[in-house]
Amino acid sequence: MRYYLIFMLLLQLFILSLPGANAQGVTRLKPVGQPDTITGGAQDSLALSAPKGDIETTIKYSARDSILFEVGSKIVHLYGDAKINYGEITLEAAYIQINYETATLNATTLPDSTGKEVGTPMFVNGSEKYAAKRIAYNYKTKKGHISEVVTQQGEGYIHGEVVKRNNEEQISVYHARYTTCNLEHPHFYINADRIIAQPGKKVLSGPFNLVIGDIPTPLGFLFGLFPQPKANRASGVLIPTFGESRAQGFYLQNGGYYFAWNDYIGTSLTGDIYSLGGYNIRANNSYIKRYAYSGSLSIDYRYFKNDEADLFGGSRSTSDIRRQLPPSSRSIWFNWAHSPVQKPGRGRLSANVNAGSTIHQRINYNSSANFLAPTFNSNITYQKNIQNTPFSYTAKLSQGQTSSLSGKGIMNFVLPDLNFSMTPISFYEIFSKNTPTGQWYENFTIGYNVTARNEVSNLIPATGSISGGLGGSVEVLGGNRRSDTLDISTKNLAALWKNGRRSANHNFALGLGSFKILKYLNLSPSVTYQETWLDNKFSYTFDPDSQKVRVDTTNFGRVYDYSAGASLSTTIYGTAYIKGKRVEAIRHLIRPSISYSYRPDFGNERYGFYQNTLIGANETTLRPEYALLPRFNSNVPGYGLQSALSFNINNQIEMKVKSKSDSTSNKFEKVSLIDNLSLNGSYNFAADSFQLSQINVNMSTRLFKIINLSFNSTFDPYKIGSRVVTNNGVESILYTRVNEYEFDFSKLKFARLTNANLNISANLNPASRESNQRTPPQTNLPSMQPGMDPLNPLQPRYVDFKIPWTLNLDFTLYYAKALNPNDEDRIDKTLGVDGSLNLTDKWKFTYNASYNFRDNNIANANINIHRDLHCWEMSIGWVPFGFMQGYNVTINARSALLRDLRLTRNRSGFNR
C-alpha cells in the first residue's frame, strides 16, 4: 500500500508538469486539430526557455481556450485568442501551431458557431504589421509565406494575395494593391502585379495604374517608388510642381534634392524654371543641436526675364500689379533664423535676418501682405546676464530696408548697437551692510543703462531747409532740395560712414519709493535724468549776401534732459446692498490719482540745445527776424516750460448675484457690469495758453459673457473760432481753436466732442464661451511659402470637425467732428463677420468678410468649403474681392506620402 501511494504521488507530479495542465492540475487531452468547445475561463499560458541552438530567445505563448502539447512530435496547438511573443515578433490569431521540429509558426482563422471565419491572424515584426488569413513563418531562417494579406508600411497599406519574406527582410507581394486608405476595401489604390517592400526604407513596384472606386484609370507609370524612412529625415529627390503664371508663363517649381547629412543638419537644393525666361535657385539649410540651439539658413537667387510679356503696356491698375515689374532683373535674398536654448548664466546668441535686393520681394512675393510690406528688418543679438550681479550687456547688429521696384530702396544699419545695464538696486544695500529695518530712506534705488549706437543709412536727406523750434522752416546755404540714395558698395563706404550718426545714450532710473500718507493715500515721488552724446553739433550764422543760413558742424555734442514729479493715489469702495431675488449687492470701486511733473524749458539758450538765429528781414516791416533752430539732428529735448498737474479716475462696477448652477444654496458669484470707466487729462500751469489738455473718456465691459464692448472718446475743453485769411488775394475763413473754454453750466455743456470710437464684438460659439477667446476663422487659402503656387497648398490645412458651428461678429463705429461747421462730420462704420458651420460630420463651411458702410464695399472676404472623403479630401476656396481675388478647387489624397496625387484648378491675382 505504501508503494502504491508513492506511485500515485509521482504520477500526479508528472501530470502537473505537462504543458496542458490547468490551474487545478487537470490536463485536457483531445484529438489533434479539433478545437475545444469551451470558450470561457482564464487564459492558459506557458513560457519555454530557449535551448541552445536555433531558438535565440524565450518563446512566450498563451491562449484563452486551451493549449495542446504533442510531446513526441514537438508541436504545440493554441486555441482561442492565441498569442505568441518571440523577441520583436508578435503573432495573434484564432489558432496558432508551434512546430519546434521544423522551427515554424502557422496561424489561421477558425469558424465560429455560424460558420463565419474569426480571429484573423496578425503578425507584427518591429514596426511592420501584417493581417492575413494564413501565416507561416520560420523563426530560424526568418522567412515567411502569407496568403490574402494586408500589411502596413509607414503611412501606406499593401494588399496582396501572396506575400513572401526572405531573410534579408525584403517583402515580395504578388497581385498587390498599394494605398493609404486604411479600410479593408479601400477607396483607391495603385494596382501592380508585384511590389517589393524594404521596411523602413522604400516600396518599389513595376508597371502600375491608379484605381479609384474600383474603376481602373489609365493613369500610371512604368515603375513606382515610395520612400518609407524610419526616421523623420532621409535624403531623396524633391518632385517639382507645375503651373502657369501670367508674368512668367508655364513653370516647374521646387524641384531638386534633399540631403540629410545626419540627424542634425539637412540641406535642400531646389529650383524653378519658367517658359518665358528666367529661373530661381534656392539653398535651404536647417540645423539643430539638442539642448543648445536650432536654426535655418537659406539663400534665394532669382533671374527674372520676361521680354515677351507686356508688363509696361496699357494702364497700371491695382488689379494688375505685375505690370509695375521690370522686364529683366537679378536679385538675391538671405534668410537666417537662429534660436538658442535658455541656460542660466550662459550668453544667448539669436538671429533673425531677412535681407537682400530691394526688388526681390516685389518679384518673388508669396502673398499680398508680403508684396505690400514696406520694410524688412534683420537683427543679430548676443545677450548675457552676469550671474550674482545686477549687470547685463547686449551686443546687437541690425538692418532695415524698404522694398522698391526701382531697385533704389532705403537701407538702414546699426553697426553695432551696444547696451550695458544695471537693474535698480537699493542705496542702502550699496552703502550699508546692515539688515534693512524698514525705514523710508531704505526704499531709494538707482538703476543705470547706457546704449551706444552707430547708425548708417544710404539715404542722403534733403538739406534745403531746417525746421525751426517755433514752427516754419529756414533756407540753408548750399542745401539740396531732394533726398537721394547711395549704392551699397565698397567704393561708397567713406560716404556711408560720413552720412552715419554715432550716439551714446545714458539713462539713470532713480526710485524714491512709495509712502503712506494719512493712512489711505499713497505718495510716489520720481526723478528722471538722461544724457546723450552725439557726434554732430550745429552752429548757425546768417549770410547777408545769399540771405540764407550757413551751418557749421563740430564733432561732439552733449544733450541732457531731466524732470521731477510725484503722484498721489488711493482706492475708494462703495457697496449698495439690495437683497433682491437674485441680486445681493452692487459694488463701485474708484481709483483716483493725481500727479505733478516739472520739466524746465530746454529751449532756453542757456542750455545750448537751440540757437536763436537771425534769418533775414521781414518783407513788409523790414525788421530783423529770428528763428529758434535745433543744434542737434536727434535727441533734442522739447522746448517750453512744463509744470503740469495730471488727473486720472478709474471706475469698476460689479454685481453680486446668486449662482444659477446651485439655486438651493446661498452661493453667490460676481458679475462685472463695467470693467473699466476712466477719465484723464492734465493742466500745464506754465503754458501761456491752452493750459488744459484734451480729456479722454474710455470704457470697456463684457455683456452676457459673449459680447465685448469698448468705447474711447476725446473731448476738447476749448471753443472753435474763425478768422479771415488772405492767400494770393483770395479771402477765406479759417477755423481754429481759441483760448476760451466751452464750459457753460447753464446749458450743461462742459467740453466739445472731437472724436469717438465704439467697438462691439460678439463670440456666439457655445464651445468657446467659457474660454473667453475668439475662435480664429478657418481657411483653406493660406499664405504660400516661398515657391508655392497661389491658392494651391501642397498639403491642405487641418480642419476641425468637432465644433459644429462658430460665429464671430465685430462692429466698429468711428466719429470725428469737423472744425468747419459747414463741413460734414466723418462717420466710419465697418462690420466684420467670420465663422464656420459643419453641415454634416464630413462637410465644413467657413467664411470671413467685412463691410465698410462709408464706402459701401466689401473687403477681405473669403468663403471655403471642405469635404472629408476619408482617405481623400476636397477643398473649395473663393476670394471674391481684392488683390487675391480668385478661386481654388483641390481634390487630393490626405496622406503626405501621396501629396502629389491631386487635382487642382485655380485662378488668382498671380495667374488670372
TrEMBL record:
Residues 1-23 form the signal peptide. Residues 764-783 have a biased composition (Polar residues). Residues 764-786 are annotated as: Disordered. GO terms for cellular component: cell outer membrane; transporter complex. Transmembrane segments: none annotated. This is LPS-assembly protein LptD central domain-containing protein. It comes from Pontibacter arcticus. Pfam families: LptD_2. Keywords: Signal.
